[in-house]
Amino acid sequence: MPNAFNFSASPFDCLTAVERQLVRDSVDIAYYREGAVILDAGQRPEHLFVVFKGHVRQFDGEELIDTLGIDDCFDGRALVAGRSAARFIAAEEVLAYQLARQAVLELIARNATFGALLFADLSKKLAALAERDSQHELQSLSLARVDEAVVRPATVVDGETDIVSVVKVFQAQRTGSVLVRDETTTPPRLGVFTTTGLQRAILHGTALAELPVRELASFRLVKVRPDDLLFDALALMIRHQVHRVVVMDGERVEGFLEQLDLLSFLSNHSYLITRQILDAVDLDGLAVAAGQITRSIALLHRGGTKVALIARLVQELNAKLFDRAWRLVAPQELVANSCLFVMGSEGRGEQLLRTDQDNGLILRDGYVPPAGLEDICRRFSEALARFGYPECPGKIMVSNPAWRQDAAGFGQTVRRWLQSADPEGLMALAIFVDAHAVSGDSALLEQVRGVLDAVATDNDAMLARFAASIDAFETQSGWWNRLLTLGEGAAELLDLKKAGLFPLVHGVRALALQQHVRATGTVERIEALVSAGALPADLAPDLVDSLHFLMGLKLRVGLEALELGRDDGRAVDLRRLNHLERDLLKDALAVVKRFKAHLRQRFRLDML
Questions:
Q1: Which CATH architecture is the domain 12-119 placed in?
Q2: What SS3 class is residue 256?
Q3: DSSP E strands: which ranges in 387-515?
Q4: How far is it, in rounded angstroms, from Cα 310 to Cα 553?
Q5: pTM (2 decimals)?
Q6: Which of 266, 267, 319, 327 is nearest to 289 (CA)?
């Protein structure tokens, strides 16, 4: 066979050298003219087809269900089942590899990942994909650079500074090391003094207030560059038996890379950022930590970490970031008598890259807030904007008086949303249902939730109107046919939120509201709904798998846009997806369609 067979395309990219040779020994090339039936429904297939020129249309009866292009293969399931359930027709002149049936069956028996990617269902495909990707995680971490970890700012003190003054710097900066610039030499030299040096200072015999730090500083600096590999930096620390290295870009000092920070980065990025957040003494320090969150997300994604775990870490980090920011701008009494909460994807624990602010503040009934409450809330919203969380276009933020009320006032607002059931109120209700406390007294949020549960009981008309939003983007849903005919036309962009994530998340949210489920995360809601008998048990795993696949694909698109300096990370270019990714996307969106049909029946949406 020609050497041009593409072994980098799924599912052949998981084959060993021996298995690849089996493919080479068992494949032929076939030509089909436009309109030719390559494989008919009910026919026993003798080959697995791999397209390398042209396009093939797949039909179920008269319905077009897929379009296959270069590197796409078919029909693996038919080879195993013994007959084809679909009809495959050449949409134009087609050249395809024909891999003998016996060779395919042998590959399936030898390589479980190949078999799963070839013909398994959505869940097994995703599991096989995760297993394959996990093999790259160690390699990814080993390629991480120094500037991808957190480099702690370095304070420089003059060599004549006394030890007592240096210790005060340690306390003020929450650090255990400073750089020492000694001007008594030519040229001036740069050294380091750490808390370890305090032991020698105490034993020196000179009063600490009179002992210059240059006397005990070490001027044999161990240095690295920002673009050095982290593992090389760790090797230097081990070689020189030091706990930190100085990061220098040419002659400019960037800061310290601590051994604990380096090891934390390689094992658990979130711990390092948490330390930064908790140690921040002002909003400037928090801004540095906030910047590390997105970088950590990119590294975790590149390392193959499951999207559900990334989302959980991001929720925890963001909660700590928002809590610390609120405590830096709000007096302690206000924090104790209020509940700061976040909503939307942030509240559900499904936000990955930063989106618009969605937050609110509930005040304790009877508590008289400080006169500067409006200014405090404005400063908080401005701080989040500075951290990279844009202001909400709908002003759903604490800086908006409508989203900062006492518990009784919020309760009345919730009642109004439920009773009026107008589009604006239902939108606000959908956002609030996902509320999650991040600072202050979380019991205040639960108090308002109690009002929601009580008023929503048996309000079938309101629940139906609420659930009907699953079709909010249905007028733009020509994406399904465009997806099926992909490759036969121009560029195709698909908004993953509108096409899949929103109807899935909102449908689960509607069921959770109907069943009084208090969980805010979509996965937790699905589990609770299955336990309550409100969701078919066989549909639930597919919903979870589809949610995580769509979230992961949206994250990848967003990260690619950030790397290119673009702000168009909301839509995926379908032409750039490989066969496996398109296959998984079609499977996931098919699950969403099936779920929407279930919801239409459950809430009788056809009656609206």
A1: Sandwich (2.60)
A2: strand
A3: 404-406, 436-440, 493-495
A4: 13
A5: 0.69
A6: 319
